[in-house]
Structures are given as C-alpha cells and as structure tokens.
Amino acid sequence: MEKESLLIVDNLHTHFFTEQGTVRAVNGVSFELKKGERLAIVGESGSGKSAMAMSLLQLISYPGRIVSGSVKLGDKDLLQMSERQLNEVRGGEIGTVFQDPMTSLDPVMTIEEQLVHTIRRHTKLDRRGAVQRAIELLRQVGIPDPETRIRNYPFELSGGMRQRVLIAMALSCSPKLIIADEPTTALDVTIQAQIVELLKNLSADTGCAMLFITHDLGLVARFAQKVAVMYAGRIVEYGTVRELYANPQHPYTQSLLRTIPSMKGPRAKRLLQIDGFPPDMRQPVVGCSFAQRCPAAQPMCRTEIPSLTDRSPTHRAACWIEDGIFSGIAKETAPTAEELLHLPPKASFLRHQEPQDAAMPVLEIKSLAKHYKTRSSLFRKNGKVVRAVDGLDFSLQPGQTLGLVGESGCGKSTTARMLLRLDEPSDGSIIVEGVDIAHLKGEELKQFRRKVQMVFQDPYSSFNPKLTIEQIITEPLQVMKVGTGEERRKRARELILTVGLDVSYLDRYPNQLSGGQRQRIGIARALALNPSIIVADEPTSALDVSVRAQVINLLAELREKLGISVVFISHDLSIVKHISDTIAVMYLGKIVEFGPTQAIFGNPRHPYTKALLSAAPIPDPQLEAERNVELLSGDLPSPANPPKGCRFSTRCPAAEHRCKEERPELIEMEDARKVACFLVS
Amino acid sequence: MADYLLKKAAQLIPTILGVVTLVFFAIRLIPGDSTSYMAGDNLSGEAVDALRERMGLDVPVWQQYLDYLLGILKFDFGTTMVSGLPIGQLIMEALPVTFMIAFLTVLIACLIAVTLGTIAAFSAHKGKKLIDQVLTWIAMLVDLMPSFWMALLMMLVFTLSLGWLPASGPIDFSDPVGLLQRIALPLIVLSLGQIATIARITRTSVLEVLNEDYIRTARAFGTPQLLVVFRHALKNAAMPIITVAGLGFGNLLNGTVITEFIFSIPGIGTLLIGGINSRDYSLVQSVILVYSFLFILVNMMTDLIYKYFDPRVKF
C-alpha cells in the first residue's frame, strides 16, 4: 500500500548573498518523504545538504535566504507561515538532531531545564508533568539512571549521552518528522552504532519519519530506506537504497561508491579516485555540475542542466547519459588499479630507501607508556595518574604500514606524539633504526627528528596561515639547516610535483587551497627531510569522501616508491584495512589485538575488535540488512580510572569473573597475531 | 570552592604586603614631607625638627616601616599626621559614599550597556548593519569624551541652565531622594564612561554566542528569537561582560578622583588627593591599603559570579 506523503519539497532554492558573490547552496531541490519513511540525504561538505535541511525549518541565517520553492508539511506550506506558526512546527511537528552533541546543547543549562522548556512550549503539561515526561524520554533513549542524569549539565555527559539527550528533545513532542543532520559524525564508531540503532528503532516504534543527512554511504546503507544524493546544491540521484547501491545511475554516485575501500576480501592496489574538486558554488550553473570531474562527460553535459528522469518507478537520476559511465562495465571489470595508476613524478633527492638489513625493523616499541598526573590541589595532595598509554609493544618493518585503530581516548594520538618525541615516554623504549630515542635530548633529539615526520589531522589548522606554501614546505629544511636558499627552493618545487600539485601553488597561502590540496602540502612537508617513517594521525578524517581517496592513494604510492614506513592512525576501519600491512587495535592505552591486516579483518579474535568491525557500517544495503550488528553497551571508561581487570571487561559481552579481576597479556596465536584476552586461546 | 577561597585569602597576604611596602617607600620619594607642608616658610629649623619628632619622622626609615606594619597588624591605622584625626574613621566615612556611587554606576551602566550591546549584536547577526553601526559609533563617541568635560557640560546644562539637579551640597544618607538628586550628575558622567566599554564587549560576546550551535538548537525547537537571546545567548555571553564590569567597578572604587573633585563629593578619592597634597604619609598609605584590599575583593567576587553563570568554571 502506498503511504501518504508527509513532506513535499518543491524546487527549493536557498542562496547565500556573501560579499564574494552569491553562493547557490541549494539550487532547485525537490523530493518527497512519506509518513514513517527513512530518507537519507548524502553529499559532501558544500553540497548544500545542511543548508537544505535548515531551509525546511527556515533557520537559514544571514546572509542566506530562501529564494524560491515550497516546502509542504502535510497540507501546510512552511514557507508561507508566520514566525509564530513556525515556532509551533519547530520542535512540535519537526524534531531536529544536530551534528555535534558537544556544542548543540546550551552548556550553562541543565538537561532538565532544556528539555522542560521544549516540552512546555509544545504541550500543555505543567512543570512537574514536563519533568516526568523528560525523565520518561531519557529512559526511552537509553540513558541510565535518568532521574539523576537530568540534573546534569551537558559537560558532565559523554558525547554519546549528549546525543541521546538531543534525540530525547527531538522526540519530546511526538513529532511527525525528525531531521538528523550528521547525528553521528562527531562520535566514535561503537557509539555511532548505538545511536543509529536507537534512531532506527525509534522510527519503527513511533512511526516518525526521518530525514537523515550524512556523508557516510555506509551509514545510509544501514539506516535508510530511500536515499537522495546531493551534489553542488542539487539532487543528482534518488531512489530506494537497494536499487541505488546495486545499480547506481549517476556517474557521481557510481564513483563515490567505488572510492570506498571494501571491508571484505583482499586489498585493492589503489582506490578509485574522483579527480578534481567540487565546483565553486558562486559561479552560475551551466550544464551538469559534475561535468568537470566526470570521465564520461559529453559536450551536452557542459551546456545543459540535466533534470531527474525516471530510471525505474522508484529510481531517478539527473544525467544525460542514459546508463552512467560504469553501466557497461561489470563490477569485476571496472578499471583496475594499474589502468588508473598514474604515478606522480619523482623527486631526485627522494630515493627509494633500501633497507640495510631487511630483517631489522625500522621501528620497535617496547613496553612504551605515558602517564600523566592530573593537577594536585591544596586539599588533594596527589593528583590522579592518567595512564594514557600503558605498555605498548610492536614493531614495524621497513616499507610497511602499521594501522593504529581505536576510539577516542584509547591513546592513539599520545602514541603518535611519543613516536615523534613531542612527548617523552614515562617508560619503555622507542627504537628507530637501532637507536633508542625514548630519552634523547638536545642536538641528538633534533637530528632524530629528520627520521620521523608527521602528517596532521586537520589541514585547516596545521599550517601557519601567514606563510606561503613554499615557506611551509621548506621550513623543516631551514630548521635543520639543509642546503642553501636556492637548493631549498628547488627541493620545494620537486616536492610539490611529487604530491601531485603544480609549481604555481608555491606562492599561494594555505587559505587559498582546498582541504585535499592542503593535505597534499602536509605530506610534502613531511617528506621534505626524506624521513624513514611518516606518522599520519587521522590524515583523511577532515576530508570529503571523494577527496579522501586521492590522499590515500598518494600516501600509498609514496610508500611504494620511496620505501617509507608509515604509522597510520585512524578510526576509519575501511581505510585502515586498505592501507595497512599490520594492525594494532588499541583500547584504553593497551593493544588488545595485533597482527596482519588480512588475519584481523578476516577473523577478528578479541571481542573488542569484533565489536569494532561489526559497528563499522558497510556501504552495501544487502550486507547491512543481513548482518547482525553487535552493539557494545555503555561508554568508554575514563583512562584516569580504568577497570581493574581487563580494561574491556565493563563493555565486553563475553566477560567472565576472571576478566574483571586479572589483566590479560598479549599472547601470540598460531597465525602470527597477538591477542590480549583470556577467552581466546 | 572552600579550597578556592582559602587559596585566594592566602594570596591576599603577599599582595597586600607588596602594595604596602611599595606605597610606603614610593611616597617618601616625593620631595618634602608633611612638616615642610605644614611649616611653609614661617617655621624655624628647630620647630620643624620638633614637629618631625612628634610625627615620628625622626627615626630611621626601616623603623618607621616596622612600626607601620605592626600598626596594620593591629588594624590600627593611626591618626593623620597633619590634622591628627583618626584615619580609620576618615576612611569609614568616605568609603560608603564612593562605594555607593561606584556600585550604582556599574549597575546603571550594565543595564543600559548590555541592552544596547545585545541590540547591536542581534542586529549585526540579522544583517541589519545600520543599527549596529549607529550604536557602535555612539558608543565610541561617548568613550572618547573626557569625563571632566562631560561633568562640566552636565553641570552647565542641568545645574546652571535648567536648575534641575544640584552639583554640590552635603551627602545625607537619611534623605534618599535628596541623595539621589545630589549624586545623579556624577552617576551619569561616570556611567557614560562605563557604558561604552561594556556595550562594546557585550556586542562582541553576544554576536559570537549567537553563532553557536546551541542557539540554533534552541531555535530549531521553536524558542522565539527574543527568548533565545535572553535565555541562552546572554547567559553564555556573560563572562567577558562580568570581567569588564568587575574591572570597571574596581577602578571606580579607586579612581573617581576627578569626578569627586568636580562635584565636591567627600569620597575616598578626595581623601587620597588631600593626603598626597599634604604629604600625609599615614593617610596615603592607609587609603591605598584599603584600595588594594577592595580591588582584590572585587576580583574574588567576579570569580564567584562566573561560577554562577557558568557551571563549568572550576576553582
């Protein structure tokens, strides 16, 4: 039976009138959402998906304005309503869950106040009734002990808990529609799985429709029934999740789905990448916005805007080419890595580093630990000791990549800081090419820094905005007093070519570059001193899906050509699997499982590894529907107060009495892997 | 919290000691002492020496310093050197006047400035640049006018031309209406100076908060804009405003000298100026001691108010 429609958006245009020009963030979006349906809007940053969602609520702030279109909720046109009427719809008929739970709740108000305000605004309940309702809601969204929790301030709750509070708020007045704008992007994988499951169940229980905005194709496959793909302010493809994933029609969707490394099966040599960058939204639209990046673009694509046409009764795409680019090629015969491989030119000073002794690891870490003392005060003489990293052992062979995986607070970044000797370890040793660098000082420490270099997470804040790209790239050379000014300039030119940009970029400033370009600069800077190890701390997490593949491919190529070893830190399991030879899974400062990538992904042994892999969404609705996501309960314990026995015992579904009392050690298994668990033997 | 108060109290001792020492020696660097002020040209050398002995200025400086410190420990400020009046009593008479004026000034200034600043920020946020700019310009203009000039202008208009408000006369706490009339002009002059600063900081702070995610959340749940501003934005924007208002209050306690002088108000500023002019060491030392104590106290109060506005503040 065809369900009734709830929300009809017709030809919506929202523009931002900035001093640099008009940004057409939403440029003619139409879609329909039926009652109780879960629709996902997928797109990269700047695709207009959030601006579209905010337009529905008419919360576009200056200098943005809804230029034309209509938004019908039931029989009411939201765009024709007065502010007063709108305020009844907002929170009353439409609930909203925002991206960052850390900043989306008022920090100086208790949960109770915030919930009660909302409830009383939209219902006739008195204060006591509203408090009762708030407690019920908190219980419904899975907050333990809601009677006490309700008196907390947001900062006293974890990220996952805050997101649950926001969801409770969105649910508070039994809305017909919940808009969830990247509701899990700021959360850890296992918490993300909890929240997605919660939203899905709530939608089923309450019959509330959901508009789920995300950039994560895996989450869409897990969560949604219908999906709309947005690119440059327009919907380019729309359909049921199964149809769209099985048979994508638009070249953008097709490429996007292929840029994601597979979690199953052997490792691909190279990721398919979408070259180029999304278009400048200030330019008037001529033709298909994707034409510049589309390998199959025809002359017509550059002059005329394609509109959504039916590909099946439930599937529409906006592309002039009937079947899209990959339709003729079956998945197996898609362009192979070699076909797509066009390696960047090689710089003369960057020579392939032949290991002197292949058996000797380039990096070896023995019982590495970092303990922080929290500040003591007048009344508390001794501060608590936070064991951020508590005894790590691993080694890395030359030319190999080690993936360091774990959730926030597990000690990944502290480990990175110690490898770079930005922090001095409290205990243990770090042996780089046979020399223990754990406690080097002065000139020796400075010389060591040539060997290990870093690529940072946030390409927006890891460069001095007042320096040109050339100055940024040559800074390490200057610090180490390598070469003359002319030689350094020459090297900067070589480096920028090596990372696939052209020489003209050297005179620019970081703010003139896109995120992907900046991350290339970050890699060039790391390469400047020709290091033997590169530590990459979440190098792609700030980048869009289509750009991410470019950076990953670049890193992989450089490793191949230069024989550099890489320590790759990430929470994104599919990328770690793609790039790493060995994997170390960390939990609360300890490695719980360590071994070859294939072994760990093929057959995870530690319960935490299992849970992590199970929590990570796969961009395949078929697989997602079949698998049973193992949800971990609760939050990560604080590293200042870790559980007594096995650190994972508080969340482990299989924990026994012994796990809560004793600490398991890493024990070598038959297949060259190590696991720290009593239940694995 | 108790931890914090104890720590602050402990910090108070070295701070006060430092101030006392500094003032003790600094004032002795000004040429001439009280005796030369009192003696003028008429007294003979012996008479001056006798006067010096009476005032305790004949003993070595270190001994004067020790005596002074001991006096403070006993909360005994002694008498003024020149007139022989008990200093403690003088301060206790002048302090309430200054305190009242400073407090009312900050109160009035905050009420007006926060309103104006919020309106400016809200207008800027909505893209109504004209209102914002007009308000910002007015604030700047007011800020640029020297207070003594404003004071004279006010006097000219309200006292001399219109005859509405007095510009001098006794300060009588038992007659509230008369008192308000009497201090109205100084209040206006002093407030104007504060309003400009507080309004500017309010505008910046509120404008920043209005772009925060939780403001969007409140709006997305149907809270009307005005309520959003008052319930969410102002409370979150309060910290810098309190800091500036607190500093202003501290300065007003100490620095209303010119205004007090123009409106002949027997406040603590007047007392201090008199002391300096007559090289009355004891008086100056004591007034500054009280000043620094009050200043520290105001800072502590500001910290405690932070905690009220933001539960995340930890001491």
Automatic annotation (TrEMBL), chain A:
Domain ABC transporter: 7-257, 363-613
Domain of life (superkingdom): Bacteria
Keywords carried by this UniProt record: ATP-binding, Cell membrane, Membrane, Nucleotide-binding, Transport
Major place of residence: membrane
Keyword Calcium found: no
Annotated localization: Cell membrane
Gene Ontology molecular function: ATP binding; ATP hydrolysis activity
One GO cellular component, as annotated: plasma membrane
InterPro entries in UniProt: AAA+_ATPase (IPR003593), ABC_Ni/Peptide_Import (IPR050388), ABC_transporter-like_ATP-bd (IPR003439), ABC_transporter-like_CS (IPR017871), Oligopep_ABC_C (IPR013563), P-loop_NTPase (IPR027417)
GO biological process, one term: peptide transport
Pfam families, per database record: ABC_tran, oligo_HPY
Keyword Cell division belongs to the record: no
Membrane topology: Peripheral membrane protein
Family of the protein in this entry: Belongs to the ABC transporter superfamily.
Protein name: Oligopeptide ABC transporter ATP-binding protein OppF
Organism whose genome encodes this protein: Paenibacillus abyssi
Gene of this entry: oppD
Automatic annotation (TrEMBL), chain B:
Cell location: Cell membrane
Keywords: Cell membrane, Membrane, Transmembrane, Transmembrane helix, Transport
Matches recorded under Gene3D superfamilies: MetI-like
Top-level taxon: Bacteria
Predominant cellular place of this UniProt entry's protein: membrane
Keyword Repressor: no
Sequence ranges assigned to domain ABC transmembrane type-1 in this UniProt record: 95-306
Classification via PROSITE patterns: ABC_TM1
Cellular compartments per GO CC: plasma membrane
Membrane topology category: Multi-pass membrane protein
One family name in Pfam for this protein: BPD_transp_1_N
Segments traversing the membrane: 12-30, 99-122, 134-159, 179-199, 283-306
Gene Ontology biological process terms, A to Z: transmembrane transport
Family of the protein in this entry: Belongs to the binding-protein-dependent transport system permease family.
Cross-referenced PANTHER family: DIPEPTIDE TRANSPORT SYSTEM PERMEASE PROTEIN DPPB-RELATED
Protein name in the entry: Peptide ABC transporter permease
